[in-house]
Amino acid sequence: MNQELTTQKNYWDRTVSDFDAIYSHRKNKFDNWIDATFRWDMYARFDYTMAHSEPIAGRAFLDVGCGTGRYAVEFAKRGATRVVGIDIAANMLEVCEQRAQTENVAEHCEFAQGDLLAYAPREKFDVVIGIGLFDYIRDALPVLSKMRAVVTDRAIVTLPRFWTWRAPVRKVRLALQGCPVYFYTREKIDALMKQAGFARYEMEQVGQLWCVTGYVSRST
Q1: Dihedral sign, CA of 146, 152, 157, 162?
Q2: pLDDT on residue 24
Q3: Whole-angstrom Cα distance, residue 5 to residue 53?
């Protein structure tokens, strides 16, 4: 594991509880208000991902940077036959396993520690997602290209927007915690999706984020 991945792993292993609390709302009223006011796009990206993943039932999904498994487990709950989540942080994966057991979908879920570039799936997936993944990747192109290589239908990703008020604040805050973060313009994403080999793609601005769906085929 290179130094960049090791830095990220250490950060996410430390902050797993704080991260998951954004979704569970197990915080005090003020902190929940902060999340609802300034992080609403994190909830909106969940809805975007689920809507753009349809049809879900009967299909196979790969969740890259799966975090605490909220997306992966939801796919399984909605009828996905196979869901694989990979993440570099062991503490995140422990939560994934527990969540899958609690939601009675463990038989459809598999979680593994590692990064996508080193991952060799036994077969391709219908859909691959990378939600909140590219925030922490210096060179996005190899990862997007690998996503394109392991999927038969589409890839759904989110990337933080460059020209926003939150970008410099977030960059400084995470830098102080030893976690670099990266931001993207529309033009940069256009270039990345084309270079990665997607036949076509859709891009939507959602708050401080870009939500992007890249398709393997030009047809719907």
Answers
A1: positive
A2: 63
A3: 28
| Token reading at 97 | 């396993």
* Residue from 121, 200, 190 nearest 155 by CA: 200
- What does the alpha-carbon distance between residue 174 and residue 88 come to, in Å, rounded to a whole number? 18
Strand partners, 110: 84
Cα 38 to its chain centre, rounded Å, is 19
Residue range 123-135, pLDDT digits in tens: 999 999 999 999 9
The CB-side HSE value for 5 (13 A sphere, CA atoms) comes to 14
Distance from the first to the final alpha carbon of the chain: 38
DSSP state of 80: -
Closest by Cα among 115, 212, 108 to 159: 212
CATH placement of domain 3-215 = 3.40.50.150
pLDDT in tens, 35-88: 565 566 878 999 999 999 999 999 999 999 999 999 999 999 999 999 999 999
> What gap in Å lies between CA 53 and CA 217, rounded to an integer?
15
Look up the pTM and report it: 0.90
The alpha carbon of residue 165 and the mean position of all alpha carbons in its chain are separated, in whole angstroms, by 22
